Amino acid sequence: MQQDLSSWRASSLAALAANPLDSKAWTTLGSTIKEGEQVRVGWKRYGRRDCYVRALECDPKNGLAWTNLGHALGESEKVEIGGKARSKKGCFMKALVCDPSQSYAWINLASMMKAGDKVTVGGKTYVLRDFQVKILEISPKDWVVWNDLAAGLELKEHVLVGGKPYMKVDCIAKVLECDPNRTWAWGDLADILQKIGGQVQVGGRWYTARDCYIKILEYFPNRSSAWHNLGLMMGEGESISIGGKEYTAKDCFQKACETDRKQNQL
C-alpha cells in the first residue's frame, strides 16, 4: 500500500508540473498525504485539505474531491471555496449533487443523520432510509448498511432496493451473504421467522426458524433462549444433531435451564 501511495504521489506531482490546473491530480495527491503532512508543489507547500480545495478551485464539479474534503474536515470545521463557507455535511451534499455515485458521501451523510432527519440534495428530500437504499444500490455488499436498514423495518414491512422488495428478514439474510462471519445474525433470523413463519434464503439454501436456531447454537451453544425455542419446535421422540451430538426436546429444555443457571452464577 505504501508503495502504491508513493507511486500515486509521484504521478500526481508529475501531472501537476505539466498542468497545475489538473483537478484529478490534486485530488489524488491529497489522498496520499497524511494528516499534518505537507508536500511541495512548485513554490508552495500543501496539506491534504489544501489539495482538495485546489482540486475544487480547478473543477467545482469534482465529486470525489468534495467527498474527500468532507472526510478531512472536523465536525464543526468549515472551509471557504469560491467565496462560500462549506461544512463537513455541506461537502458531502455537494459531492452528491456533482456525482450521485459517490458511495462514501452517502455513507457519511447517513452516519450524520438520526431517525426523522431530512436532508435535501439536488432539490430532492431524503430521509435516513433513502440514504441506506442509495448506499446499497451502489455498494450491495455492505453488511453494516443491510443491518442498519433491517433495524428500521417492522417485521412485515418491506423496502425496495434496486427495484426488489426486502423485508426485515431478507435484510438480515443479506448480512450473512455479505459476511458469513456475522454469525450472530442467525439468531436474529431465527427469532424473526419464529414470529412470521416461512423460510429465508441464505447463500442459495432455504432456512426455517428451526434451521436458524440450530445454526446459532452451533456458534453460540450458551444461548438459552435458542435452546428453549428449539425444544418447543420439536416433536415427541424426535432428535436433532448439534455439534455432533443428538438432542431431544427434553435435552434442549435442560440445556436452556443449564445455561440460564450458569449465566446467573456469573
List keywords for this structure.
266 residues; alpha+beta; Serine Threonine Protein Phosphatase 5, Tetratricopeptide repeat; two-stranded antiparallel sheet; 13 helices
Structure description:
The protein is of the alpha+beta class and 266 residues long. Helix content is 56%, strand content 17%. The chain has helices spanning 2-18, 23-31, 48-58, 63-72, 88-98, 103-111, 128-138, 143-151, 168-178, 185-196, 209-219, 224-233, 249-265, and strands at residues 39-41, 44-46, 78-81, 84-87, 118-121, 124-127, 158-161, 164-167, 200-202, 205-207, 239-242, 245-248. The protein has a two-stranded antiparallel ribbon with strand order 1-2. Strands 3-4 form a two-stranded antiparallel ribbon. The protein has a two-stranded antiparallel sheet with strand order 5-6. The longest helix is centred in the first third of the chain and has 17 residues, at 2-18. The two termini are 45 Å apart. The model has no long low-confidence stretch (mean pLDDT 92).
